[in-house]
């Protein structure tokens, strides 16, 4: 926006630097080195003094503060004007500059503290060439700006306010929009969330009509698209729980932005952005991109504050804060001669610039004039009273009944009404014409109610280079803006911003730093446990405080913010050892995750053993000979120990101190086997419930269906832990299928009967496995030993399906019983369709071929297929295709 | 429950409380915090992009392709955007308000 780069002409407008080129060169070299040394010595001495005064941990908090780092940059940058270098070579001035920077508010707190939060980059800022160069660049830019701003902005905001003001102009605009939005929403309480959102977009659109740049346009388009998506799914969204709704909204918004933003860019940038959004690693990279960007923003803010200070210190004090626009324009023109500014013009918003009015006769008259000038043609007495009382209160005006705020004590007609409205405290005071009255921005509601036009921020256009009429307000002629008024407006906004940013910053802004801390914390714990193990074999190394640890800030700094999340974060993040490299952290994270997984596997093995005992009990229990109570007790004991692995407690314990990415990874791992165990446990519970509630003979009626949740099981088991997948599927295989009508054999008859039954079942299963292979439902070389999880489940389903009759699959489905089991069948088909469509195709082909061979029973197949059509369109589609394929050859065969 | 002492969790708790979602179950909480974090990170990126001139934007986009390698470059470019910190703050505020209003019935 403003001139960057070297500024030879800069010195020409500064009396302090009227020197020849040669002298300048010599002085530059000498004073740069000298100044550097002076500064270093000064800060060093200062630190020593502070250390003496404060406890150790507090004293170190000041080391490498934002202010010191940035001020240090001044003396080492050749392109910074010499007079500024000389200026800050005075230790006291340097300290002032450093303090000014540290006091700058960024992300809801003082820069000093933000800088500390970003401790790792502070360390690199001192050493790292890239960050150093970034700081220099920002500094130079700001100082250039400060110089131009000094001349041009003197009338608008005094002493550095211009930079501060400029940096906040976009914020003002947004907050103004937001305020309007919130106010409007109050009037639409009956609206649904989405209707409110629609209204919000409309308001924003209206507000943005003053001129949209590409970015704003993209943002608005994205908002509109999101809204469209939201409105299309209105019923669905509104019925969702809040958390789900929020997730849906964020997803839709993100999608919309990813579509709109590239369109707003120039072709090349748009293409890169599009590709970036397609990048699979983007979600992982957001955090890194965001963190680096924020770090850069903080450095930039520091440099901005330094520029503001420099402006104030070197230039601002020389100009009066209440110069007229004419004077400002003259100063701007003077600055423009330096050719420092390259941009043609910039627009500055002055919020509530009309909140101050000069008294004209009486407060009443002034208010009336104000209302009339904002479109309220005939203000009612009630509105006027209200306006007058508001202004009186805002200005602490006490008026008596006879001389109510009138210049020269003139009576005014509305006093009686005001009095009736409760203005009893109005007392007499003599006000002179021309006195400035503030608070006219508070009359917005009255104006709005009366149908007038609510005053909006005034835009002031600064043109570069300027002529004497360079300062052009958008309306109402030239405007003189006092520094105090601008500062007041900004101050309140800064406060509200800080409050909310504190919360966001706690959770989001420094999330990456928090993760860094968590990794460090984990490593510390590991280190601790390792130290404990190794303590007998190797002597412990003396622990030295890391640079970061040294700089733990004092607990009670001169912060105006209340201690909150940021403070907690800061206090911990500062302990992150700066020397940790990312690789080391990554390795450490992998190790930690591996250890947690190992522990989870051990837990699984133990739990699996217990589960097997429970399953053995419930599936082999058929006898009524033993007292039921004893059996129940036995069952209770078995069950009592179960469930520990898939409850949240164990998982949460293992996930303690994990980063979010690690937690995600671990949760996936955990689900693989815990869900299967949970499934098995629930089935065992159902089985047990049946045992206890019914006679043995009727158990089969309500037998637990092994397909419950079975469709999902294969997916979940896909990535089962490496050293245990064998154990998991085998376990379920052993579930004996109780045959209908089968004589219930008391378990107590002895182990031989049991063994015989088991052998019989195993043989039957082997037969059925072969049948599955013949039908193409199973891979030819599958054995019980090399089953995949899904194959195991498919076999179990098949066994279950076939238990009705000792016949083939097709024979069983011809009978009515097959229809009762159609859900199981279709579930199996659905599973196959999803996971092994080729198997389903082959099955259908074989089934249809066999059906055609057995035409007497063809009706059964048709019925089954009709039912299936109704149940699963996908299967019906496949089956239809198969029917078409097979119909013709069958007919030919018949002929 | 997850370890309440962890920073991220604490920050997440604060934000969820602000949104009136403090009572969701731990698993959903994690998902929400993660998604919110990504959302605000995305807002940061897009705000920065919107404030840059064409040349800066191209450089920035090239740099963010590999943030591991180009971290310093991203920082350098971001530091040159005037008022970026304030703009990001404002964009966050705006986003937060949007989220709040979506949650209101």
Salient structural properties:
heterodimer, A: 895 residues, mainly alpha, 3-stranded antiparallel sheet, two-stranded antiparallel ribbon, 7 strands, elongated, disordered N terminus, B: 105 residues
- Total strands of chain A: 7
Mean pLDDT of chain B: 76
How many whole angstroms does the radius of gyration of chain B measure?
16 Å
Q: Write down the overall mean pLDDT of chain A.
A: 56
Per DSSP, what share of the residues of chain B sits in E-state strands of 2 or more residues? under 5%
Quick take:
Chain A is built from 39 helices and 7 strands.
Descriptive overview:
The complex is a heterodimer of chains A (895) and B (105). In chain A, 65% of the residues lie in helices and 3% in strands. Chain A is an all-alpha fold. Among the domains of chain A are: 170-289, no CATH class; 357-456, no CATH class; 584-753, no CATH class. In chain A, the strands form three sheets. A three-stranded antiparallel beta sheet of chain A has the order 3-6-7. Chain A has a two-stranded antiparallel ribbon with strand order 1-2. In chain A, helix 4 crosses helix 6 (91-102) and helix 14 (242-264) runs antiparallel to helix 15 (267-278). Chain B is mostly helical and 105 residues long. Chain B has one domain (7-103). Chain B is built from five helices and no strands. The longest helix of chain B is centred in the middle third of the chain and has 26 residues, at 26-51. Chain B is elongated. Mean pLDDT of chain B is 76; it is low at 1-9. Classes of the chains: A mainly alpha (895), B mainly alpha (105). At the A-B interface, helix 9, helix 10, helix 11, helix 12 and helix 14 of A face helix 1, helix 2, helix 3, helix 4 and helix 5 of B.
């Amino acid at each position: 926006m403003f001139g960057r780069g070297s500024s030879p002409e800069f010195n020409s407008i500064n009396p302090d630097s009227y020197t020849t080129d040669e002298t300048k060169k010599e002085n530059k070299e000498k004073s740069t080195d000298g100044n550097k040394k002076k500064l270093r010595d000064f800060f060093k001495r200062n630190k020593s003094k502070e250390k003496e005064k404060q406890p150790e941990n507090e004293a170190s908090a000041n080391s490498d503060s934002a202010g010191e780092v940035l001020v240090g940059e001044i003396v080492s940058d050749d392109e910074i004007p010499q007079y500024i270098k000389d200026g800050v070579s005075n230790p006291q001035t340097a300290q002032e500059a450093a303090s000014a920077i540290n006091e700058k508010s960024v992300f809801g707190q003082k820069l000093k503290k933000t800088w500390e939060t970003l401790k790792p980059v502070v360390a690199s800022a001192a050493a790292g060439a890239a960050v150093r160069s970034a700081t220099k660049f920002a500094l130079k830019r700001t100082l250039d700006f400060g110089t131009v701003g000094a001349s041009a902005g003197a009338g608008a905001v005094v002493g550095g306010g211009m930079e501060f003001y400029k940096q906040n102009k976009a914020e003002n605009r947004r907050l103004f929009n937001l305020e309007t939005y919130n106010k409007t929403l109050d009037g639409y309480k009956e609206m649904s969330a989405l209707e409110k959102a629609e209204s919000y977009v409309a308001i924003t659109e209206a507000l943005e009509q003053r001129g949209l740049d590409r970015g704003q346009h993209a943002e608005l388009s994205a908002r509109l698209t999101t809204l469209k998506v939201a409105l299309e799914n209105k019923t669905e969204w509104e019925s969702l729980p809040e958390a789900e709704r929020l997730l849906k909204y964020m997803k839709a918004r993100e999608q919309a932005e990813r579509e709109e933003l590239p369109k707003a860019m120039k072709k090349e940038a748009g293409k890169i952005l599009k590709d970036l959004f397609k990048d699979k690693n983007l979600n992982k990279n957001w955090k890194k991109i965001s963190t680096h960007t924020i770090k850069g923003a903080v450095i930039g803010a520091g440099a901005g504050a330094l520029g503001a200070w420099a402006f104030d210190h070197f230039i601002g004090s020389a100009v009066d804060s209440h110069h007229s626009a004419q004077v400002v324009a003259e100063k701007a023109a003077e600055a423009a001669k330096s050719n420092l500014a390259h941009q043609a013009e910039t627009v500055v918003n002055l919020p509530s610039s009309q909140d101050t009015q000069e008294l004209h006769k009486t407060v009443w008259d002034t208010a009336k004039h104000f209302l009339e000038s904002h479109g309220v043609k005939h203000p009612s007495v009630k509105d006027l009273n209200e306006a007058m009382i508001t202004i009186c209160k805002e200005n602490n005006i006490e008026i008596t009944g006879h001389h109510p705020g009138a210049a020269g004590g003139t009576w005014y007609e509305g006093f009686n009404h005001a009095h009736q409205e409760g203005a009893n405290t109005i007392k007499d005071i003599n006000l002179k014409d021309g006195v400035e009255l503030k608070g006219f921005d508070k009359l917005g509601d009255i104006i709005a109610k009366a149908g007038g036009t609510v005053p909006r921020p005034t835009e002031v256009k600064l043109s570069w280079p300027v002529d004497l009429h360079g300062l052009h307000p958008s309306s109402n002629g030239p405007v003189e803006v006092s520094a105090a008024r601008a500062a007041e407006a900004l101050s309140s906004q800064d406060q509200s911003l800080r409050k909310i940013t504190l919360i966001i910053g706690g959770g989001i802004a420094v999330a990456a730093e928090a993760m860094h801390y968590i990794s460090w914390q984990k490593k510390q714990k590991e280190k601790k446990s390792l130290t404990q193990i190794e303590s007998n074999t190797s002597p412990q190394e003396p622990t030295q405080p890391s640079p970061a640890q040294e700089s733990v800030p004092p607990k009670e700094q001169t912060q105006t913010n209340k201690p909150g999340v940021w403070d907690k974060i800061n206090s911990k993040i500062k302990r992150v050892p700066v020397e940790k490299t990312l690789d080391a952290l990554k390795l450490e994270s992998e190790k930690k995750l591996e250890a947690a997984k190992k522990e989870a596997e051990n837990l699984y093995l133990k739990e699996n053993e217990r589960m097997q005992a429970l399953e053995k009990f419930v599936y082999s229990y058929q006898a009524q000979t033993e007292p039921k109570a004893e059996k129940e007790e036995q069952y209770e004991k078995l069950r009592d120990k179960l469930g520990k692995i898939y409850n949240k407690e164990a998982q949460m314990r293992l996930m303690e101190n994990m980063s979010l990415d690690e937690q995600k990874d671990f949760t996936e791992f955990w689900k693989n086997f815990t869900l299967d165990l949970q499934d098995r446990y629930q089935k065992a519970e159902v089985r047990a419930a049946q045992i206890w509630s019914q006679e043995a003979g009727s158990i089969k009626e309500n037998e637990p269906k092994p397909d419950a949740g079975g469709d999902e099981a294969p997916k979940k088991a896909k990535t089962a832990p490496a050293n245990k997948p064998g154990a998991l599927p085998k376990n379920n295989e052993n579930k004996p299928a109780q045959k209908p009508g089968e004589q219930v054999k008391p378990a107590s008859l002895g182990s031989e009967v049991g063994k015989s039954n088991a052998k019989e079942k195993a043989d039957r299963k082997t037969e059925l496995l072969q049948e599955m292979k013949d039908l193409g439902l199973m891979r030819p070389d599958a054995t019980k030993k090399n089953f995949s999880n899904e194959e195991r489940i498919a076999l179990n389903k098949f066994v279950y399906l076939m238990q009705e009759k000792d016949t083939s699959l097709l024979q069983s489905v011809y009978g009515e019983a097959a229809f009762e089991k159609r859900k199981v069948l279709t579930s199996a088909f659905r599973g196959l369709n999803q996971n092994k469509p080729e198997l389903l195709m082959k099955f259908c082909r074989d089934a249809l071929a066999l059906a055609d061979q057995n035409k007497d029973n063809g009706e059964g197949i048709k019925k089954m297929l009709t039912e299936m059509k109704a149940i699963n369109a996908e299967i019906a589609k496949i089956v239809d295709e198969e029917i078409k394929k097979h119909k013709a050859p069958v007919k030919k065969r018949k002929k | 429950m997850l370890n309440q002492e962890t920073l991220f969790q604490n920050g997440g708790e604060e934000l969820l409380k602000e949104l009136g979602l403090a009572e969701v179950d731990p698993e959903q909480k994690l998902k929400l915090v993660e998604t919110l974090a990504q959302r605000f990170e995305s807002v940061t990126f897009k705000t920065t992009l919107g404030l840059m001139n064409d040349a800066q934007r191209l450089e920035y986009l090239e740099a963010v392709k590999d943030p591991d390698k180009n971290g310093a470059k991203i920082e350098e470019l971001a530091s040159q955007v005037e008022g970026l910190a304030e703009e990001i703050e404002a964009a966050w505020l705006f986003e937060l308000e949007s989220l709040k209003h979506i949650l209101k019935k």
